[in-house]
Specification:
Layout: E1 2-7, H1 10-17, H2 20-28, E2 32-37, E3 50-51, E4 61-62, H3 64-75, E5 81-91, H4 94-101, E6 105-110, H5 118-124, E7 127-130, H6 140-151, H7 162-165, E8 184-185, E9 188-189, H8 199-217, H9 219-224, H10 230-242
Length: 244
């Protein structure tokens, strides 16, 4: 898996993506996340990457040509799936991360200022992605969020597949609560079932807590959930009965 990130601030990307789990995965050669400075492809000696918008208005707009030349260098003239991190994009979620996981190589484009010249988007971008209905100063944080979400699912990054398939959003539900030592913390006890050693009961409890948490905190997700088996139907009946 190779992810190229086009940015005006490569140091910002490297400071995060070279650390922790993703950093170790890069050291092992399992994934590659490379930040490239768009200014390196500017056409003047001052490495100018932006200019005033046509039609007037505040701020600056990133120039199409440095973006295009940077993109061409990274794609080597071939088609490489390209994502622009944009407040106008489609919401990013776990399903989109799984779709990007199928790409051996993709490019993330970080905008700045008032945005980037639309002509570059029309020429080179396959899709626009947003990490939420809010505006940031640039696309670096969203790009790192997308890269992290995808890279952690690459085989060899985490210890095993269950490390991400058992987490929130994989199957449309939120993850169950987690506990660790001590058994009693400031008067709050760890649920007894987790201390029982009875794996079937523990799994049933975790599934029930996952369903209850999703219904309480994300009713929008819960409304879309379809029971996977008889166990799910039994748990849902229990939840509905408790609420009567």
């Amino acid at each position: 898996m190779k992810i190229d990130i086009m940015t005006l601030f490569p140091e910002m990307i490297n400071a995060v993506m070279r650390e922790s789990i993703i950093g170790r995965a890069q050291d092992k050669g399992v994934v590659e996340v490379k930040a490239t400075n768009i200014r390196d492809y500017a056409l003047d000696k001052h490495h100018k990457a932006d200019d005033a918008p046509y039609g007037g208005g505040r701020g600056q707009v990133m120039l199409a040509e440095p973006l295009y030349l940077c993109h061409q260098a990274l794609s080597a003239g071939e088609h490489v799936h390209t994502v622009f991190l944009s407040a106008q994009g489609q919401p990013f979620n776990q399903q989109k991360a799984r779709e990007l996981l199928t790409k051996e190589h993709f490019i993330l484009v970080c905008g700045h200022y008032e945005g980037i010249d639309q002509r570059f988007i029309d020429e080179c971008v396959d899709e626009e992605i947003s990490i939420g209905d809010f505006v940031l100063t640039g696309g670096e944080i969203p790009a790192m969020a997308v890269a992290d979400a995808v890279c952690r699912m690459v085989p060899g990054v985490l210890p095993d597949e269950e490390a991400f398939t058992a987490e929130s959003h994989w199957d449309g539900l939120l993850e169950h609560p987690q506990y660790t030592r001590p058994e009693n913390w400031r008067g709050r006890e760890v649920p007894e079932v987790l201390l029982s050693g009875h794996h079937a009961n523990i799994e049933a409890w975790r599934r029930e807590m996952s369903l209850r948490r999703t219904k309480k905190d994300r009713p929008d997700l819960f409304a879309q959930f379809q029971p996977q088996d008889k166990r799910d139907k039994k748990i849902l009946d229990k939840i509905n009965s408790d609420e009567r």
